[in-house]
Amino acid sequence: MIIPGKYLLFLGDVADRLDAKTACGLVDWSRERCVGQWRLPSCGIDMGLEDMDFAQARAAGAETLVIGVTPFGGAIAPQWIAPIVAALGAGLNIASGMHVRLGSIPEIAAAARASGASLFDVRDPGRSFPVGSGRKRSGRRMLMVGTDCAVGKKYSALAIARDMKAHGMKATFRATGQTGILIAGEGVPIDAVVSDFVSGAAETLSPDNDRGHWDVIEGQGSLFHPAYAAVALGLLHGSQPDAIILCHAEGRTHVDGYPDFPLPGLAECIEANLGMARRINPAVRCAGISINCSALPAEARAGHLAAIADRFGLPCFDPVATGPAALIAHISATFD
Description:
Blueprint: E1 6-12, H1 21-29, E2 34-39, H2 54-59, E3 62-67, H3 78-89, E4 93-96, H4 106-115, E5 119-121, E6 140-146, H5 153-166, E7 171-174, H6 178-184, H7 198-205, E8 214-217, H8 229-239, E9 243-249, H9 266-277, E10 285-292, H10 298-312, E11 316-317, H11 325-334
Parallel strand pairs: 1-2, 1-3, 3-4, 4-5, 6-8, 6-9, 7-8, 9-10, 10-11
């Protein structure tokens, strides 16, 4: 799926940045493609981009309106349909990572036909996959796992793959979600694959490779999530990781949106993921811990990361604030 041109980011009327993961990811990792943002008056977030109408965005070089929000359940809200139709009328393509297909909404489908613009459903796998085989594959694999959704698994994988390559290592970021696919230009929307084939899709995403090559795989969900544990387990088995990186958002105490479900401790989460991963690769190990420290005061972050690193005897980093240099050194020294 090749999505053309630069992007205008659609933020709709969401109030929480956690619901704008796609927009945040694109601004942080593909800023050069983002020309502006479009918001309803009640929108409570700002990506720091210029607010543009659709004609202004076209004049600034945008070719595609990207739905930059990912609300619970992946549905397109009724109040978004009219502006999406207007964007199509202005000549913009539409790219969406929602579970709901753009063409299934009659008004959007009709507007696309009338304008000749294209609809891109990034969360459509676009192909079938085999069931998982469990076969040992050549090359190395590193999977991000989490205490919850939206804790930094994508950012961690992107930062690790970037820094591995900067240090002369062979590494590829493997996207498993709509935002990662928009950033990388390829991948598998793993939560849109029929459950029996999730492990097979993960195997397809990270095939045999050179002995020293690392597939750095974006994680999804969490084994402890009451709704999304299934995709996390399928991805864990199919990825057959040699290393897992535990990702956590500091300050979060309960599963986001599920106040009756406290988050597991870091040690419990590591052991649960290793226990499941060992079913496919008995040699798997936890190689590091990624902590999103954005909720902490800047002056407290270094000490917090150091304390966790000391407690677990593993490199601990913030993918944005510190980067994964300590992890890269650890990987280089401990994996032959």
